[in-house]
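Structure (tokenized):
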């Protein structure tokens, strides 16, 4: 942005989330429809719905790519969690080159969160969903902010099916020990 501002250029960004927030440069237009509060916009709906679940969730674990794109959704997740009275108990960032997500999810799962929130690129998302199954992580509520065109989600049908399978709580044995967990052996 500093270079664009210095040269007084008009610039159109495609997926730049919150890029102009600290500059407030009038010659910048972003095409991602997040409105005037881009940090919180991507996570607002998820945390609003998650906070209305019964039993009410209390804790959040965040697993995020250590990349420029994930900074804004992480800020938004923190703000929306706070807004809904949820406590962040774990925040793990991983290098973009990560291929094995199982250790990250074991670490996040060891905190026994009520909500698992992921901030990732599409290829990472597929690996994260597969790792959720691999470690048999059963978190009552899982959400995600990912960077990818919407049609890319269609290409990851196999991973989407794995997430649907995970919703049957294959990892319920650990979670079932918690009396307040919606994951039960019968699910």
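Design, position by position:
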């Amino acid at each position: 942005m500093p270079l664009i501002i210095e040269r007084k250029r008009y610039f159109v960004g495609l997926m730049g989330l919150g890029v102009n927030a600290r500059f407030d440069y009038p010659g910048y237009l972003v095409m991602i429809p997040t409105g005037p509060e881009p940090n919180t916009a991507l996570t607002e709906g998820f945390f609003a719905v998650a906070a209305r679940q019964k039993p009410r969730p209390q804790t959040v674990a965040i697993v995020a790519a250590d990349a420029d794109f994930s900074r804004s959704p992480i800020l938004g997740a923190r703000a929306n969690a706070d807004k809904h009275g949820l406590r962040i108990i774990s925040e793990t960032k991983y290098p973009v080159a990560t291929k094995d997500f199982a250790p990250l999810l074991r670490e996040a799962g060891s905190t026994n969160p009520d909500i698992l929130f992921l901030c990732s690129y599409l290829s990472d998302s597929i690996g994260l969903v597969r790792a959720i199954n691999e470690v048999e992580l059963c978190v009552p509520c899982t959400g995600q902010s990912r960077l990818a065109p919407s049609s890319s989600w269609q290409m990851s049908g196999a991973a989407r099916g794995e997430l649907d399978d995970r919703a049957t709580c294959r990892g319920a044995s650990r979670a079932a020990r918690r009396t307040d967990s919606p994951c039960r052996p019968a699910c």
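Reviewer-requested clarification: The chain has a mean pLDDT of 78. The beta strands are 11-13, 28-30, 59-65, 87-94, 115-121, 141-147.
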